[in-house]
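Renewal narrative, Specific Aim 1. Our central claim is that a sequence can be written position by position from structural information alone. The example that follows is taken directly from our test logs and has not been curated for this report. It begins with the structure tokens describing the chain, in the order in which they were read.
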């Protein structure tokens, strides 16, 4: 028995005519249900599916966020998709490229959302899609490899989740108030096929630019979409330690540079600290 969607189902017939890509989405697998489209794409990558293979599900039963967190993934109304990238830079440039893949995916998602109308999307470091202070979507990138030396066989799965037609009352209590959807913001249902087509088109453009020209070609766009830079923030590090200050810049490897408060001797006074694998709270 299929899951009934109140909205147009995502079908290959609806999405494929919208694609202007050479690689991304040219193999497009639309699943009714899967634990996680990222997990499925990682598995398929090991099996040798082509570059650009895209896995989309109507529902995830174990949708994943970063750092072991969960992604709420109810059926039929949102977008959960994972794209396999097999093209990588030469091994010596992989370390500077890899951390920018998720930031670039977030830029591409923001541009795709802009094609739907005047939706004021901004990015919260590292790769949350926000509308004002509420979370519309997120990005989870995972690298894998099929062995070999010198990074040969390296691939990355870019996972993107966007709340599209979910309504306020449908979020679990812990997310209501902090999450939003396109329909909640615009008041009208949004066609997921259009959004997916646009997302894949923009992903190919932006990931292509990152690959060909490197992070410096992307950094300016990331900065201009960022809701974090210039803000006072609290960073919660993987160790549990917290740090407060002003978000000042993005480092060459995508790290967030925070100028800590001079008054906080416990943080070592005023200095610029680079954080990675951290969560950020925007302070007022
Ligand atoms: C993310 O993680 O924001 C990355 C989410 C990536 C989801 C996509 S869906 C397709 C692909 N397949 C997967 O299995 N994952 C990817 P993070 O920054 O860790 O944020 C997770 C946190 O966001 C949770 O702890 C909740 O607080 C919140 N959250 C969970 N579900 C949400 C939702 N649907 N909308 C808004 N916030 C949510």
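The sequence written for that structure reads:
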């Amino acid at each position: 028995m299929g899951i009934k969607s109140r909205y147009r189902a995502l079908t290959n017939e609806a999405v494929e005519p919208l694609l202007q890509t050479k690689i991304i989405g040219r193999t497009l697998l639309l699943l009714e249900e899967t634990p996680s489209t990222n997990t499925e794409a990682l598995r398929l990558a090991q099996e040798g599916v082509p570059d650009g293979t895209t896995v989309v599900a109507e529902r995830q039963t174990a949708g994943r966020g970063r750092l072991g967190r969960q992604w709420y993934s109810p059926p039929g109304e949102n977008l959960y998709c994972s794209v396999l990238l097999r093209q990588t830079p030469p091994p010596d440039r992989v370390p500077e490229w890899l951390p920018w893949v998720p930031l670039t995916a977030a830029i591409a998602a923001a541009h795709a959302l802009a094609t739907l109308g005047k939706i004021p999307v901004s990015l919260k470091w590292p790769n949350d899609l926000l509308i004002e202070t509420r979370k519309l979507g997120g990005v989870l990138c995972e690298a894998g490899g099929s062995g070999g030396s010198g990074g040969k066989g390296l691939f990355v799965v870019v996972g993107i989740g966007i709340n599209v037609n979910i309504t306020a009352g449908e979020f679990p209590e812990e997310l209501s108030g902090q999450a939003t959807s396109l329909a909640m913001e615009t008041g009208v249902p949004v066609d997921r096929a259009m959004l997916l087509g646009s997302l894949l088109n923009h992903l190919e453009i932006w990931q292509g630019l990152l690959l060909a020209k490197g992070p410096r070609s992307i950094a300016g766009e990331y900065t201009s979409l960022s809701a974090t830079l210039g803000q006072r923030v609290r960073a919660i590090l993987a160790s549990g330690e917290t740090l407060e200050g002003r978000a000042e810049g993005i480092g060459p490897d995508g790290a967030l540079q925070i100028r800590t408060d001079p008054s906080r001797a416990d943080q070592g006074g005023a200095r610029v600290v680079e954080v990675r694998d951290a969560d950020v709270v925007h302070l007022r």
